[in-house]
Specification:
Length: 957
């Protein structure tokens, strides 16, 4: 942040405790600079970014220059503002927000346009640290101690968390965890924390092993650890005392696994059981985490609290809490059945209640405390403030909101084409097919070459996909084998992280190959990356780009201190300085090149990771390598909602879960990663039923996700493969696929708002019903647009579920037509083939016919479903769907409104136009009244009108 001072400085002398203390403030062209008398910050800089946004920087040294932000693109505005000192404070006012800084200690509080304080600093720490031989600071800033405000956002975190007040959230990129340091409150304010390093919301203290904080006593009464029992082949082979459960990383397994048992990966039928009592002199609720892969079952005081499975190579955290009484032992029992996995339990002592319920942000490495505060009239407008600061989301191509079929992986060109042909033959809607990794020769990762034996003519493959009116996305990585020319070019120019190669680390492919990732933090490196791709891949005509492993996960399951050495240095310093933004600058390499070479084509990038600002790069994010478990399906709901409320509107997930247990692997199976076997098993009938039901429930949820995408490994996910012919599963999957296309007028108009109005597709209930306290921590429902409320089914065998109806509206059951008044929970039927979808009374839900791909029939009639019982409106948006003409104003809107008192629907005059616009179309109007099912008669309508751009009205009967 660079502030140009004005010529007049205002100096104040403060008197405190009978002693004079010098403090000062200086008005600048964009805000004010304050040098407080004392406190951690020696200089506080405020800038007006908009009339409702203030940028704050707090420095340990006056006059310190900062590295330009990676996440923000906005400049200070030419806004009117005032700066005034009064007593021991100075206040900056800017229309809809003001900030008051204490001249005594630099503390800041923020007020809205009416002068009501909404954010008040309560704690601060700036401590010097040395990283990579350079001086930095570790920072903490705490606000609103003891608050009841609800908090959302912070990216994607798969722990069943919705309202984050009272929670701890680690902001460190991982395969399934996406760090976006932006938090928004139900009280219509937000904080964008501008830091690139590992950060935390909540407790600034990192979680540690249990023995760090708790008193552990094993089964024999020996203090300082647990009793560990090792079983192989069902027989107890070793019992020993262990200080902690210490298998979190691969090095831990190598170093701590009992040598007398041999290597874990060479053993079969292994089980480890830990028993201990835990106690503490700090009573209260202690937050703990089970970090695990493979099968793990955790029992606390005889009660099972976790029963989880993850694929062995991809462990992650599972949060749980234990309520301790002072010095009273709690019994812990953990059973772990590893194949090659990892496990640990981490812990933190409880915080004082005021700190526990606060907005506290901290970072391990920083140049300064640096954040933006946004005040607005709604959560949507707070998110609009985030987009103003970090960049607007461009329109995605319309086809990207259709159905995506993917698999890990299509091993040949013909396999991929056969899937497209099959969907077209069966008449099932499909818009995109995906070619996952390893289309290259085995030793050619990073060459960008296709294996000629398996993909003899990639250009012909792309052309045939297009001939079938579908699109194709290709997987690309920032990873390169050391033997490739592309690696060598990066390395020669200093743009390759080489330590992983120097260490001799091998990946999992074939015999294993030395590899690393390029460093995208300079323009030269990004330009090289795109140039290497262009002639070999971009020029083949692919429609979208899947930027996998974009955290970047250079060497999975490394100890954190080792991993930081693998992702640096960069021009910004050591690897930990830029731990989180890789996906932002990596995707910038691709989008900059594509926009230069294809200036009028809408782009689409899918990334496994994300960061603040990534939406400006035409990026959608998916939830990583999830697993086919009911608890992981449940976790997707709150993860997707909070990610969307982090300001990045396009999100998706692997329908069915990426990986699955061996018991589910039957039928026509494909490949598995990590050199694992993927052979068929003789599946038990009960396992097959569960597998099919889990996939169906996930598919139903996917139909109401921002992007509708089926993907996974081993068991193939194509509808005609995974669902039996003539089964209810098949019928339901096809029905939801077709419903997605029927809803396309509604979905695309909702998607258009993400660009034109900084809108959000997958919406937390609190966004539309902020006055209803009951919605603020609902983890398993959300709004899909403003009109549809979705309640996924995530329990095996469930045929009904409780759904809360938000207060302030009435709700139609999409299937039965039953109307529920808001403000109560209702048990709603959820038969095998359906999930509960509720439509808000007053909604105008535009729907079209079933098509094989979006815009197959651009002039098809549109049915307006009018849900009577309240007034309503909707803006029907249309454009060409594929070009950037919308940025030049080439789109149309048709305003739709319904007056419930008169029963009149008005189809308003069209505004705008675009090339290829359908000037005359037929609207069908259907009035939905209580008891009328929408789903059972999707083609019905009571009125038909011809529309040519001028306003017309329809009166209900």
């Amino acid at each position: 942040m660079h502030i140009k001072p004005m010529t007049v400085a205002v100096w104040l002398a403060l008197a405190a405790a009978g002693q004079a203390h010098a403090a000062s403030f200086e008005k600048t062209a964009t805000g004010v600079v304050v040098r407080p008398d004392q406190g951690a910050a020696k200089e506080v800089r405020l800038e007006v970014m908009r009339n409702n946004i203030i940028h704050v920087v707090k420095l340990d040294q006056p006059g310190k220059r900062l590295t330009p932000s990676l996440m923000t693109v906005a400049a200070p505005c030419a806004c009117k503002f005032t700066v005034a000192g009064k007593g021991q404070a100075v206040t900056l006012k800017a229309g809809k927000i003001s900030a008051t800084v204490s001249l005594a200690d630099g503390r800041v509080h923020f007020a809205d346009s009416k002068g009501k304080v909404f954010l008040k600093q309560a704690a601060e720490a700036i401590a010097p640290v040395t990283v990579g031989g350079k001086p930095y600071v570790a920072i903490t800033e705490g606000f609103n101690h003891g608050t009841r405000d609800a908090y959302y956002g912070l990216g994607q975190h798969q722990n069943g968390q919705m309202n984050l007040n009272g929670e701890d959230v680690l902001l460190a990129q991982h395969n399934m965890d996406v760090a976006v340091p932006f938090v928004v409150s139900d009280k219509n304010y937000g904080v964008l924390w501008d830091n690139n390093a590992i950060s935390r919301f909540g407790d600034p203290k990192p979680y540690g092993p249990m023995g760090r904080d708790l008193k552990l006593v094993d089964d024999e009464g020996k203090p300082g650890g647990l009793t560990a029992r090792y079983y192989v082949g069902g027989k107890l082979v070793l019992t020993r005392h262990e200080k902690d459960i210490a298998y979190q990383y691969l090095k831990d397994v190598d170093e701590n696994w009992p040598k007398e048992l041999g290597k874990l990966k060479e053993l079969k039928d292994v089980k480890v059981v830990w028993d201990a009592t835990l106690s503490t002199d700090k009573p209260g609720v202690h937050k703990m985490q089970l970090y695990s892969s493979d099968y793990a079952t955790l029992t606390v005081d005889g009660k099972q609290v976790l029963d989880v499975w993850r694929q062995g190579w991809n462990p992650w955290y599972h949060n749980f809490e234990v309520n301790f009484t002072k010095d009273k032992p709690v019994k812990l029992h953990l059973e772990w059945k590893p194949s090659s996995g990892m496990v640990a339990i981490t812990h933190n002592d409880p915080l004082p209640q005021a700190e526990r319920h606060s907005l506290t942000m901290s970072s391990e490495v920083a140049e300064a405390i640096n954040y933006h505060v946004i005040s607005a009239e709604s959560i949507d407008k707070v998110i609009a403030g985030y987009r103003h600061l970090t960049g607007q989301a461009p329109m995605m191509p319309k086809w990207s909101y259709g159905f995506w079929q993917s698999r890990q992986r299509y091993e040949t060109q013909e396999q991929l084409l056969d899937v497209v042909r099959e969907y077209r033959k069966r008449g099932w809607p499909l818009d995109a097919i995906v070619q996952d990794w390893f289309y290259w020769p085995q030793d050619g990762w990073g060459t960008h070459d296709f294996d000629k034996a398996r993909f003899p003519n990639p250009k012909a493959m792309v052309d045939e996909v297009h001939k079938n009116n579908a699109r194709i996305m290709l997987s690309i990585w920032g990873k390169f084998y050391a033997n490739t020319d592309n690696y060598k070019e990066f390395a020669a120019k200093g743009h390759m992280w080489t330590k992983n190669v120097e260490d001799g680390a091998l990946d999992w492919v074939g015999p294993g190959y030395k590899n690393s990732h390029y460093d995208p933090y300079t323009k030269e490196a990004r330009d090289i990356y795109y140039r290497q791709l262009k002639t070999k891949l971009v020029d083949l005509g692919f429609d979208a780009w899947w930027m996998d492993n974009s955290e970047a996960d250079v060497l999975s399951n490394s100890r954190l201190e080792d991993f930081k050495q693998l992702i640096g240095p960069t021009v910004y310093g050591a690897g930990e300085v830029t731990f989180n933004p890789y996906s932002l600058v990596h995707s910038q390499a691709m989008i900059d090149g594509l926009r230069r070479d294809q200036p009028d084509k809408r782009q689409f990038i899918l990334s496994r990771s994300g960061f603040a600002g990534i939406q400006r790069n035409a990026v959608a994010v998916w939830s990583g390598d999830t697993v086919a478990r009911w608890n992981n399906l449940y976790d997707q709901i709150s993860a997707g909602v909070n990610f969307s409320m982090s300001g990045i509107p396009n999100w998706t997930h692997d329908i069915g879960g990426y990986a699955q247990e061996d018991r589910f692997q039957s039928g026509d199976v494909g490949s598995a990663q990590e050199n694992r076997n993927a052979g068929k098993v003789q599946i038990k009938p009960e396992d097959l039923r569960e597998w099919q039901e889990l996939n169906l429930r996930w598919f139903q949820f996917g139909a109401f996700s921002p992007l509708f995408r089926s993907h996974g490994e081993v068991v193939k996910r194509e509808i005609h493969v995974i669902s039996p012919e003539g089964s209810e599963m098949r019928d339901s999957m096809v029905w939801y696929d077709k419903l997605r296309y029927r809803l396309m007028p509604y979905i695309y108009a909702t998607a258009s708002d993400t660009h034109h109005n900084a809108g959000t597709i997958m919406r937390g209930l609190v966004m539309d019903f902020p006055a209803d306290d009951q919605v603020k921590d609902i983890k398993d429902q959300y709004l899909f647009g403003h009109s549809l409320m979705v309640a996924p089914v995530y329990e095996y065998g469930a045929r009904e579920r409780s759904v809360y109806m938000p207060k302030g509206a009435s709700w139609y059951d999409f299937d039965t037509g039953e109307v529920h008044k808001g403000g109560a929970s209702v048990t709603v039927k959820a038969p095998y083939g359906r999930i509960p979808v509720l439509v808000k009374a007053g909604a105008i839900l535009p729907m079209g016919p079933v098509t094989q791909y979006v815009d197959e029939c651009p002039d098809a009639p549109i049915t307006l479903n009018i849900y009577t019982g309240a007034d309503g409106s909707f803006s029907l948006y249309e454009d060409d769907g594929v070009t950037n003409a919308y940025t030049r104003g080439e789109f149309s809107r048709i305003p739709l409104s319904y007056n419930d008192k008169t029963g009149v629907v008005t189809i308003g005059a069209r505004s705008g136009q675009y090339k290829g616009m359908v000037s005359k179309r037929e609207f069908r109007v259907r009035f939905i009244k209580p008891g009328m099912s929408t789903s059972q008669s999707l083609d019905d309508a009571q009125h038909t009108v011809s529309y040519e751009g001028k306003a017309v009205t329809v009166r209900g009967k």
